[in-house]
Every structure is written in structure tokens, then in C-alpha cells.
């Protein structure tokens, strides 16, 4: 009878430890999820930052530098979106594994390129040596809205297999631009 009581307690302890582990993972995930801010929230943050540093001239210099840097980045982003046609609508990342020399993060991206929408999910494995950091994309999954062309699905499968995001975005930009031209042309003749 003592063994069965001890076994019951051990089972209860083990189930509580598993529950604690799951709750700790959920908490860590919620802490590491990236947060998106609206334009209003960004402007409110800038205004509160300005109020904090109104006292000294050094604060004004750093604030003006930050504003100039922000405007430059916004201009660059706008140019890239117009040039490539790619607009990201959401991004989230979660750290899956972290050790001293190795970090694995799971990323989710969604957006559109001209009139085609896409979603990406991949893991980024970052390994740190003494002199450098290397990154490798693994477990790439691409979801695109259905298109009539079967070659696109073959292309996407090939990209997923090789994990080459640069090739995907370059090709997506060209394909989506011409897809939009074809769509407009066919609409014109209807």
C-alpha cells in the first residue's frame, strides 16, 4: 500500500512539473512575441521622448538626429516598397532554442507583392564563432494565394527545399509585376 501511495504522489508531482514547464514556455513565448505599433502609438512615443529631453540642448541634438534617421529609414523603406512592390503586413518571431553559441528563432511573415499575397514561416539558426555569426534558414514554408500557373507551385516547392529567400523575393517581385500586367490586359479585352 505504501508503494501505491508513493507512486500516486510521484505521478502527481510529475504532472505538476509538466504543467509548470508548459506554463513557463507559454510565458516565455508571450514575452518574446514581437509587438506592432500603430502610427499613433509611434507619434505618442516620439512626443513623450521630446518632453523628456526638452531641458538640455544635448537632448535636442540627439532628438533631431533620431528624427533625421527615422525619416531617412522611412524614405528608404518607401523606395524599396515602390521598387520591389513587396509590402510586409505582419511579422512575428519566437525564440525556440537558445544556447551560448546557438540560437533558433521561428519567424512568420505575411505581405503582398503587387496583387499577390504570401505568407512565410521559417526557422533561422544563428551560430556564433569567436569572430563571426552565421545564419541558416531551415524549415521554410511558403503559402501563396492560388494562381493558375503550375510552374509557380513547382518554383515555390524548389525554394522551400533549398531555403533561398533572396531568390524567392527577387522572383516574386518580377512574377507579380508581370502577373498584374497580364491581369490588367485581360480585363481590358473583356
Characterise this structure.
The protein contains five helices and four strands; from the N terminus they run αααββββαα. A hairpin with a 4-residue loop joins β3 and β4 (133-144). It has 190 residues and is an alpha+beta fold. It folds into two domains: 3-40; 85-189, no CATH class. Helices cover 58% and strands 26% of the residues. Strands 1-2-3-4 form a four-stranded antiparallel sheet. This is CENPP protein. It holds the Pfam family CENP-P. Residues 6-33 form a coiled coil. Keywords: Coiled coil.
- What global shape is seen? extended
User: What is the C-alpha radius of gyration, as a whole number of Å?
Assistant: 24 Å
Strand content: 25-35%
For the biggest sheet, the summary is:
4 strands, antiparallel
Count of helical regions: 5
Query: SS-based structural class?
Result: alpha+beta
Q: What is the total domain count?
A: 2
The topology string of helices and strands comes to HHHEEEEHH
**Mean pLDDT over all positions:** 80
Percentage of residues in helical conformation: 55-70%
Query: What is the number of beta strands?
Result: 4
Residue runs with pLDDT of under 50 for 5 or more positions = 56-60
What kind of oligomer do you see? single chain
> Distance N terminus to C terminus?
84 Å
Arrangement of strands in the largest sheet = 1-2-3-4
List keywords for this structure.
5 helices, 26% strand, CENPP protein, alpha+beta, 2 domains, 4-stranded antiparallel β-sheet, 190 residues, CENP-P, 58% helix
Amino acid at each position: 500500500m505504501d508503494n501505491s501511495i508513493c507512486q500516486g504522489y510521484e505521478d502527481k508531482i510529475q504532472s505538476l512539473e509538466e504543467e509548470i514547464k508548459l506554463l513557463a514556455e507559454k510565458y516565455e513565448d508571450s514575452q518574446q512575441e514581437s509587438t506592432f505599433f500603430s502610427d499613433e502609438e509611434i507619434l505618442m512615443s516620439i512626443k513623450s521622448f521630446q518632453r523628456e529631453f526638452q531641458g538640455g540642448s544635448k537632448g535636442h541634438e540627439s532628438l533631431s538626429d533620431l528624427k533625421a534617421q527615422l525619416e531617412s529609414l522611412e524614405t528608404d523603406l518607401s523606395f524599396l516598397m515602390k521598387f520591389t512592390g513587396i509590402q510586409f503586413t505582419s511579422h512575428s518571431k519566437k525564440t525556440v532554442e537558445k544556447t551560448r553559441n546557438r540560437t533558433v528563432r521561428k519567424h512568420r511573415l505575411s505581405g503582398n507583392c503587387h496583387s499577390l499575397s504570401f505568407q512565410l514561416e521559417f526557422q533561422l539558426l544563428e551560430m556564433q564563432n569567436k569572430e563571426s555569426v552565421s545564419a541558416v534558414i531551415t524549415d521554410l514554408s511558403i503559402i501563396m494565394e492560388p494562381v493558375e500557373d503550375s510552374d509557380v507551385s513547382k518554383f515555390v516547392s524548389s525554394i522551400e527545399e533549398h531555403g533561398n529567400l533572396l531568390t524567392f523575393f527577387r522572383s516574386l517581385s518580377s512574377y507579380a509585376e508581370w502577373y498584374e500586367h497580364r491581369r490588367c490586359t485581360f480585363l481590358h479585352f473583356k
